[in-house]
């Protein structure tokens, strides 16, 4: 047992820490650590870490790991973390660098000990998602009941504990920002025990969870926003380290950065981001919270260029700011939203920033102007607007005295009587407001009155402090209805807040992690949604359903979660935007066999600009399977109505008939005639399992369209079902 837990290390390590402060050279520091280890190693009784329970769940390994058997002869770094914690995330680059320098062959093993803060974080599937999202490649154990945490008397996240080859505790490092000590302690410990012949070079059975997953068009999308026209979406495809600009039918217009992380300005194909989150678009300019690069980036869609407008590329600790953007260090920006200065001559001349890493709200001046109760500021200046930098749930009439706890989502309601910023304050599980007149920070819903209690979370509909949230990450303002929508991430729900009455209620989601579409709001399911937006006319809401790797579309008028947005590669789209349909490309589409049935569908009333989702479900004859070598595909034609096809995806591959295929189609904004017919066709190549014969089969669905009115209405869905039979 560990005698007194980490407290047993305190006297000797404190003495070492003071001595290191007085040491001038690297050699002196190494000698001090070496002498410390000699003293610790010669103790009559080791401070030993207890064995991890055999029933604990492990990730990134071939099976459970024993500290005293499998890791005997290794220097082990235990990382006590919880995946919601920004300080824990700040530590990951240090651990990545350490495991890059020393492998298990060198005698070092890092083990993540996940000790949850929120109930939602105890669930193994959610930890799996976090391991993928943050590219954790060392073993992780789910210490759901915090058994080891309590045994060692760990008191905060993150805490590192360094063990010798007998499971003997040697050092602890509490909090972030100890990279130099971590490397010093680890390197000298490896050297010390190698000289004693106690380090083993055997491999640990690593089996990365990420290697078992199929590719996905989106990977942990964190945020989504829509432009003023409602025609373009911007998606932070966080896990792919890129920004996507798509049509509202999911067709990709621009891919910027990705798929690997990096930090690079330049053209769209050479630019690089690192886990981008918040995005804001106006006309053809997008601002991006490039979270793990600690930067704010600007994307110019006309010039197709990415530039850096704030941050220096390393995590900042400055809690005041005031320098020109590209010279001002910042820390883990998580969301951005446009706003207007008090004295500015133009709208949207301020970019508000949720600076999660230092628990503050900052401003980047896009033009010269004043902030509430502030002095004149020059264009390009980046500075703190609200928050002391202490991690608290503290409201105050003076913005600099207020306290936030990892603010992760922003929304603006500029109109009277609101005139405020809404803040999703994730670690206090609250939504707060900041007045755009005087900067006063006030409580809206969630949390509790004690500003130091960051554990007042739950899932309760109600008013003000009686409402409870669990780690909300996103907010968006519905101008039409004067309502605020909240991505209540760890409750797997979308909630709606009436700021006038301070009432908070569940809008969508069951409260259980899941993935359900095509249903009413109350039956729909999400998995840690991180961001959301509402188009200007208040009709559709888009939700970044982060752990489901989807953008979900909610119709606020019919209260139906209609679909997950299909993200379609531009190369799958045969017709360029605003160009006439090219005849040669239509000629190259597959020709159906003469025996292919032509199924007549009932006429569909549609409006210009409306989106139709064709849901294709095909069934092969018994004991048949698709021929993987042949190009099975769906495609769309419109004889005598080629105007319908401008800017559309005309074809796509069919690789799997076991699930429904979603084929999006958006009517042009201006329609040439009031009646037209689309043909949706499928051509399949399949084989009988017991035979070497391969068949070609096809089907055509004829969909008459009746164009009426100008109201775009809700997204229409049309089921296309057919069962092929053996001749």
From TrEMBL:
This is NHL repeat-containing protein 2. Monomer. PANTHER family: NHL REPEAT-CONTAINING PROTEIN 2 (PTHR46388). It is found in: Cytoplasm, Cytosol. One of its GO terms (cellular component) is cytosol. Keywords: Cytoplasm, Repeat. The keyword Membrane does not apply. CDD domains: NHL-2_like, TlpA_like_DipZ_like. Required for normal embryonic development. It comes from Copsychus sechellarum. NHL repeats lie at residues 514-557. The keyword rRNA-binding does not apply. Residues 38-239 form the Thioredoxin domain. Its main location: cytoplasm.
